[in-house]
Amino acid sequence: MRRREFLKNTALASGAFMMPAFLKPFEAMAQGELSGYKNLVIIQLSGGNDGLNTIIPYGNDIYYQKRKTIAINKPDIIKLNDMQGFNPSLSALKEIYDQGWMSIINSVGYPNPDRSHFRSMDIWQTASDSDKFLTTGWIGRYLDSNCQSCKNPYTAIEVDDTLSLAMKGANMKGIAVQDPNKLYQTTREPFFKDLVNNHTDAHLNEDNLGYLYKTMTETYSSADYIQKTSKIYNVTASYPATALGNQLKTVSKFINSGLQTRVYYVSLGGFDTHVGQQNQQGRQLQIYADAVAAFIKDLKQTGKLDDTLVMTFSEFGRRVEQNASNGTDHGTANNVLVFGGKLKKPGVFNDAPDLTQLDNGDLKYQVDFRDVYATLLDKWLDVNNSQVLNKNFNGLALV
């Protein structure tokens, strides 16, 4: 082997380990055209948010019987109807709800639920049955589906420095981009540029080296596209100075700049409330509500709300009865919150959770979460849900 080639191979092998984590998921990012304009924003609440203390069934006495010290007092609840109301920490969302830009889907889950954080999150992210183990996520398989509007990995962006399983397909993956300027600057460092620019066609025929060269070359060009395109628009709306607020502000910048992306993914943790739940959950719910309210109002102001759908989920809810530590333990069914300017049924979408018919102390699911996904795929992303979910789901009259 020639010395020059040896040095290249050595540098490349070293570079694979030195590359920042947020660069590793990038694949096949040559620019192309996207048809369609609708945006889907997914917000993941990690840790298992307690749905019963989020959208509170205050009209059911069983709620207060089962939660003697952690139930939200009736005078503090923001009433939505005669049965359910907002946790007071969600006060920022009341205006959004009243405008008809929010829909609450109760009792969402799946058959034979799993109470492990990791396993249940995998089920939600892969859209698998509880007894099936998939290595691809539902958004990743959307990218794999070869639909007209999902030919490029930057069709799906996670605003983070790592990529969730939901965003990984068999052939394509989404992109993790926390800061487009940081990504651009990293790919412009001399070491990275030299690796990208100084290669031969021979390297492209070698599986490992060719794959890495291809990934780095396309990352290089796409970082330029993302950075330059996102400069088109500066967000003028006020957002809370929180991690989620900053994530959604970045999504607003991308959407309003005309970035060719269909799906955005963000997350907020801190919802595993086994001890002292009221204060901890209240803090996290306020972070969530303040950021989402700012985002929805921002999109309404810029004329993008009708073209945007926001879905919030958590891997499971909590048990109906509180535990001895003024908290709740892992449960099953939960609420899913959806926001947008074109909702067919805003407000409370279906009946409140049934607290009289429990499964070993847990809520029984009434809506399969994959019916929610099927609606997003069929009605919003314009792809047949059976291609992505591996079987056909009916969907909901949501949008």
Please give a structural write-up.
- This protein is an alpha/beta fold.
- The protein contains 13 helices and 14 strands.
- Strands 1, 5, 6, 7, 8, 9, 10, 11 and 14 form a 9-stranded mixed β-sheet that branches. A 3-stranded antiparallel β-sheet has the order 2-4-3, with no helix packed on it.
- Helix 6 packs across helix 9 and helix 10 (243-257) packs parallel to helix 11 (277-302).
- The model is unreliable at 1-36 (pLDDT under 50).
**Percentage of residues in strands:** 5-15%
Per DSSP E runs of 2 or more residues, the count of β-strands stands at 14
Q: Return the string of H and E elements.
A: HEEHEEHEHHEEHHHHHEHEEEEEEHH
Structural class: alpha/beta
* Major β-sheet annotation: 9 strands, mixed
Give the termini distance in whole angstroms: 61 Å
Mean pLDDT, rounded to whole units? 87
Computed CA radius of gyration, to the nearest angstrom? 22 Å
Total helix count?
Answer: 13
Question: Any idea what the shape is?
Answer: globular
Helix content: 25-40%
Question: Ranges with pLDDT <50 over ≥5 residues?
Answer: 1-36
Describe the oligomeric state of these chains in a short phrase. Answer: single chain
